[in-house]
Amino acid sequence: MEEIVRELTEAYGPSGAEGRVRKLIAERIAPYVDEQRVDALGNLIALKRASVSPAAGRLMLAAHMDEIGLIVSYIDEKGFLRFHPVGGVFPLTLLGGRVVFENGTLGVIGIEERWREDKIPPLEKLFIDVGATSPADCPVRVGDVAGFHRPFFAQGTRWVGKAMDDRIGCAVLVEFLRQVKESIYDLYVVFTVQEEIGLRGAAVSAYGVEPDVAIAVDITTTGDVPEGEKMAVELGKGVAIKVKDSGMIAHPGLRRHMVQMAERTGIPYQLEVLRRGTTDAYALQVSREGVPAGVLSVPTRYAHTPSEMVDQRDVRAALDLLLRLVAQPIELGN
Ligand code: CO
Ligand code: ZN
Question: How far is CA 54 from CA 22, 108, 176, 183, 292, in A?
Fold first, then answer.
């Protein structure tokens, strides 16, 4: 699985520019799905039919293809680029970093001189240097979007890369499609667009798929770093089953079912209550008249930086739990 994680995390794909990631995923899953299509917003919607007939219903699984980025807002007379964030971009993660545009142009992030000392600069005080000397010789235009440029690495049990949020979720679903043999549900596996700017792809794809149950696979932060927040999620301790984040409360019946399945099958799991952030499941849950929705999260350190770190064992646990969940009826309780 490491190769697909490497490929996916190194691929270019900020929100609204997910085409390369979509193409890569479409190629990888083609041998394992019955149908796939791309909707008006760019979501990749794959269907793998149930292994029994009739199917127990439609189960939607979602992971977002997009990553955070920087969009060019202005090019000055010397060819320096000013930018706005696409999604949650923080100044501390940028200085001296490298970014890449869709056309392959690389850029370095610099800072206005008087901010160099000790203050955290607002994004407006930073700029991208692509080596241009004027707007005329600048290889990118206003509206072009850059993503972090950073290679993947594996070390011990850890995987590190940019855009682990949420290419690790995409990788789990690609691997899931490759491995799943038994499913009582028609599986709608959706690789969504524009999560980082407001869950837009999930909203429209859920409306189209009309699932009976929906599960997002995404990342969550952890409490296991120095002076970290008191949060009961650690790297290497298993897949996180979301209880609540700042956008939603996971369907309690679905969450209990996932916990029971993990306990019965000995898959390591943790319960997640996340203070800040949400996932596609928020949009899935409020689609049409409401959909029971939950989240399997991969614990991730340094989220929204160029070096997001996950643990292979947690990724494996997420995959194993998904494979188990689709083989039997999902008991939602009442
Ligand atoms: Co994110
Ligand atoms: Zn995410």
Answer: 30, 55, 22, 11, 21
Phi first, then psi: give them for residue 138, nearest 5 degrees. Answer: -80, 125
Is 67 marked active-site?
A: no
> CB–CB of 146/86 below 8 Å?
no
Domain boundaries, the chain: 2-67+162-325, 69-148
Name every residue whose Cβ is closer than 8 Å to that of residue 94 and which is 6 or more positions away in sequence: 109, 123, 126
The CATH superfamily label for domain 2-67+162-325 reads: Zn peptidases (3.40.630.10)
Q: Which CATH architecture has domain 69-148?
A: Beta Barrel (2.40)
Distance between CA atoms of residues 113 and 115, nearest Å: 5
How far, in whole angstroms, is CA 229 from its chain's centroid?
22
Task: Tell me which of 175, 195, 272, 308 is the catalytic residue.
Answer: 195
Give the HSE-up count for residue 89: Cα atoms under 13 Å, Cβ half-sphere.
30
Please tell me the predicted confidence (pLDDT) of residue 334.
67
Using 70 as the pLDDT threshold, list the residues of the chain that sit under it.
116, 334
Length of the chain: 334
Helix (H) or strand (E) holding 206: helix 200-209
C-alpha span between 202 and 286 (Å, rounded): 11
Distance from Cα 258 to the centre of ligand 1, integer Å: 23
Q: Say yes or no: do domains 2-67+162-325 and 69-148 share a fold.
A: no
| Protein residues within 5 Å, CB atom, of ion ligand 2 | 165-166, 218
Task: Tell me whether strands 293-299 and 213-220 are parallel, antiparallel or unpaired.
Answer: parallel
Q: What would the pLDDT profile of 29-87 be if each residue is shown by its tens digit?
A: 999 999 999 999 999 999 999 999 999 999 999 999 999 999 999 999 999 999 999 99
pLDDT (0 to 100) of residue 114: 79
Amino acid identity, position 45: I
